[in-house]
């Protein structure tokens, strides 16, 4: 099955903020963060159903990145993987749940 990836526009802001923060901590760390996120997205595209459903509607799932404490929040609808957010694991769910309504 071939899956289409759709990344919500808000995810760009999530990634930019995290990248800038990590670069302030250590130059170049932001690029390592982005690489980890993109590798995780590629991994989830191989079989997104491996990841447990966290919320029944609309079938929201998430996966943690390998190196950084970030969650990639996504759902699978038909043959499309929709990424809603890339957020720090400690952030409250209400931060990204509003994105489901848009």
Helices and strands, with pairings:
Blueprint: E1 4-7, H1 10-25, H2 29-46, E2 53-55, E3 60-64, E4 70-77, E5 80-88, H3 94-97
Parallel strand pairs: 1-5
Antiparallel strand pairs: 2-3, 3-4, 4-5
Based on the model shown, name its key terms.
102 residues, YaeB-like fold
What does this entry look like structurally?
- By secondary structure, this protein is an alpha+beta fold.
- It has one domain: RelE-like (YaeB-like fold, 2-Layer Sandwich).
- The chain has a five-stranded mixed β-sheet with strand order 1-5-4-3-2.
- A hairpin with a 2-residue loop joins β4 and β5.
Identify low-pLDDT runs.
none
- The helix/strand order is EHHEEEEH
Secondary-structure class = alpha+beta
N→C terminal distance? 27 Å
CATH superfamily: RelE-like
- Which sheet architecture does the biggest sheet show? 5 strands, mixed
Number of helices: 3
- Report the helical percentage: 25-40%
The first-level CATH class is given as Alpha Beta
Question: Which value, in Å, is the CA radius of gyration?
Answer: 13 Å
Our estimate of the beta-strand percent is: 25-35%
3D shape: globular
Strand order of the largest sheet: 1-5-4-3-2
Count up the domains. 1
Nearest-integer average pLDDT = 90
The fold-level CATH name is YaeB-like fold
CATH architecture: 2-Layer Sandwich
**What is the tally of beta strands?**
5
């Amino acid at each position: 099955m071939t899956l289409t990836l759709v990344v919500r526009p808000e995810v760009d802001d999530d990634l930019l903020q995290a990248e800038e923060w990590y670069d302030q901590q250590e130059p170049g760390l932001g690029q390592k963060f982005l690489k980890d996120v993109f590798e995780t997205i590629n991994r989830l595209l191989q079989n997104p159903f491996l990841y447990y459903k966290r919320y029944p509607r609309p079938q929201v799932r998430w996966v943690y990145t390998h190196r950084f404490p970030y969650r990639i929040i996504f759902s699978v609808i038909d043959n499309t993987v929709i990424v809603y957010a890339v957020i720090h694991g400690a952030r409250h769910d209400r931060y990204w749940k509003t994105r489901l309504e848009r």
